[in-house]
Amino acid sequence: MLGLGRNGLRTLAGRRGLSSAVAQTSNSTATPPPQQHQQQRQNGDRRKDFVNRTSRPFASATSAEQIKLQKKYQENLESSKLESLHDAVEYIEWRGTVFPQTVDKIIGLLERSANLSSLSDRQLAVLLSIFGATCDTLSRSLRAQNLEKVEKILREKGVVMGLLSRNQLIEAKVDNRSRVDAVEELGKFEESGVELDSKSYALLCEVYAKQANPKAITDIIAHMKANGISLTEDHVAQLIYSVARGGSYDQVGRVVDTFSSSMNVVRLRCAAARAIAEREKSEPGRGGFEVTEMLRAIPTTAKLHSFENNIYVVNVLMDLIENGQFDAFNLLSSYLIIAESGTTLGENSLNTTVVARSKSLLSEGSVEEAMALYSCVHPSYANDFFVQKLKNTLENNLKSITTTSALEDYFKVITLAENRGMVSSANEFLLTYCSKNTIPLFAEVFDHVQQSGDLRTILGQNPEIKKALGRQLAQHLIKTVSPAEQAALLAKIATVMFAPSAKEAPADTRDFYRIMYKVVGKDVKLVLPALDLMKNTVWYEKREFGTAIVHQLLYSDRDDHLAAEKIRILVESNKLGQLNCYRLHDKLTKFMMADKEKRVNLVAKVLALDFPPDATSKTPVKFGGRNLIKFMSNEIISTEIAAKLVQFLEEDPRVQLTNDELKEANVVLKSCPEKLDLLGKLRKSATMQRWRSSDTNELLKELSNFTSETKEAVKSTLKRVILQKVIKESSDDLDQLVNILEHVVEWRKEEKFPDFLKSLSRTLENHALSKAISANNMVLADRIWQMRSGHPAVDVLLSYASRLFVNGQVERADEVCEELRKSSQIIRPQILEKMGRRLKGADPSKMNELATYLQNSFNLKSKDARRVVLQAKTDQLNQLIETNDLPGALRMAIEETNSSKRAFGQVPIMIEAIKRNDKQTLESVYTMVRSAHNVDMANVNLAYALIHSDNVNRARSLVERQNLNIESSVLQYFTTLASASENPKLLRDLFIVFNGRASTLDLNYLLELATKKLCKLSSSNDIESLMKLSHEIETTSFPLQNKLRTFFDDLKEKHSSSSREFVDFD
């Protein structure tokens, strides 16, 4: 070896002051797992180019052609079909790329080989090389573990290592940053009987260079000289590295100058620069500056930009980036051979070294450093393996993130990947991965993408991920309790599902209608706040979401008795913005024809939402007029229905047909000119819009300014606007109403007074006369009477006659009654009740006389005539109860009951007596009802009073104890009372108490009213009430009608635990 034993070397070292130096070992340790790479990088590999790589016979640079071949045959390379260690040696020497499968295969071959003596020292060195930097696809920690395993195998099999293999073993350990003991390694050389060569000493120098121990290196160099071993750049570079690593930058220049005449200055300066790069970890930015200063000192005659020298600068570049200086390429660009673009290295084999280090960094978990380094690679040397592994690493990292702080760091990394060109779009990468996998912080990732503004673009290009993303958001929705958070999540789901995409057909979008209807729980409670949260930037998604919900509500009308009410709430909320009504035409027509009288107005409101909210809106979708014409062309829609629709649409400011649309209507409605004329009313000019927004007095003034040259059609249109506005505003200002009617009288004197104006004027006369009668302003009432154009409505005539009679004007009342008889209008019982409400405040003593008067005047039944006075007496009774005069109320009730032979006022008195715990009054009322009717009727009234007083159990016990059955008319009466109450639980409790005691038909009607009222209020307590109803129905096996059965089945499913765990998106 050196001609000295192990102790002899120590003696030599002691004489030269090297004893303390050789006893030291490297502070480096094996690389920890990737998640600990930040701590491990404190002991980084800084050797690399200090040993001349060109001296290795088995490690040559990989050509661009060989790289291409590797890509082409990568599958075969990765399969590692090696049958012997000799095959493995050939594979390593000529293939150039070593994959993890190859390493595992070679370890297996070494373990199974009975005799390794057939391997030469050079071949063994080749095998050991794959456990160092040659295998750039494994992390240093894994390489170190594999190397320890191989070293143990060789030791157990008695393999004696020669110079090449032992040098390679030390080099691999240094590459892996494993702990290296220089003295121990010298001992192994001595035991093997192997003489150290120049490279062996260079490796020992490298161990001390990393410790910044130049004294030990100078002693080794002196020892080499003494033994005739020549000094090379490999040794001097380590000496300079150790000096620079210790911070003695001034001495670096002197050392370099000493050897500049015989050695490569570029390599020596770059060695110092690599040591300085270590400072980048502790002082970001500082190391980069000092590195450039060190390189600036290289003389121009040193040929820095030659290929042979630029490899050393590239190593400095890699070290800087590995230590966190991601802008190193820009710092060193003037010293590098770069491409014409100025953004990457030149097209040469130096790129292969950078790719190898990039893969090594990536395998260790240093993702940012790996991306920054790989971005310097010329496009011709792009490595698909690295890019794919980078994406896999990014995906695995995203899956394991559980904290928001870690997620924020991850966003920075993925953004860097996009900026460096590793992924085409960071946000698209995030959403695509989330659509295929479940990650802990999906909601936060989605919010990040949405806030970036890329969501619509990404979904437009990748519509196939919509359903998967919507499913995950829906899972978060069903686990959320807060209504505000639920609304926000629903808005996000709608934004995803209805994002526009040129790759989707309209039928694909309609497939989401059913899904969204299930997500919202077949209700509109969450839809309204969700629509509020959808901004104008997603107007298309908002329109499609609203259309989807309305479409499904129209479709479910046959099964959902609340569908019409839900549509009304949604349409009147003023939150929809706009709908795509063309997709609703078929369902809308069926919905309207199911109940033409009640639903025409609602259908008109839906059709109006097909128009932009503002006529001057820049919204590109303006097909409302065309769609309305197509809807009207349906033969099932009669002219009468069309007239009602147009009447409602006229009042909506957003509905306006253009001249082009009316021309199209001429073609479509050619066979139905009546509908065409009706649609002509929807052509609203700017003048019409101004009229509708102006005050009535201003319009009257403008009308008075019209001249004889003004067209009659214009005058009639303005008169119609005035009358419609007054009727719609329903003003209580009687003077103004009379003033308008006076103008109407003048208009009637003109030659042309169209029928539509006659109809509107009669409506206004009825409205004004009713207001005057209710206010008991008989002066204005008489004035209005004198201006009438025909027979007022029956209820108005009866009210007027009754008010005149009560006020003592019997003769005038007779005249009005005669007018009513001449009109041949039918007097219905409901009209008598309505009239009675208009006589509030009248003298109660006069009401009985009024009932007799009307009975004689119109030959009414006594019970019908009594309806007129019932409301007034009920008001008087309630006033007595409110003033705490319960005895007075009881006396009044008894007197009225004895007079009419029918119970009066029993319910409010019973309720008040129960509240006050006044048993005597309660017994008196009970006796009164029993005397007027029977015991069962008294018990039924008492049961309702108990229900109203929140004594449901007592009421149920009473009904069961007395075995009561309730008649249909009586149940309907109590149902009406409960519906008029502000307490929604009354209807529920009424059903619970009388379940099984009335007809199934009446109880189903009661349930229908109860569900409508409870769903309309939509509080948590009302949900509990519905669930209580559902339990009662299920317990008693009550036979529900189809719609109610569907409602309660959906309710049960919605609030079951299983439905809270999964949303069906298929």
From TrEMBL:
GO biological process, one term: regulation of mitochondrial translation
An MF annotation (GO) of this entry: mRNA 3'-UTR binding
GO CC terms: mitochondrion; nucleus
Domain of life: Eukaryota
Polar residues bias spans: 21-30
Residues covered by region (Disordered): 18-47
Name of the protein in question: Leucine-rich PPR motif-containing protein, mitochondrial
Native organism: Caenorhabditis remanei (Caenorhabditis vulgaris)
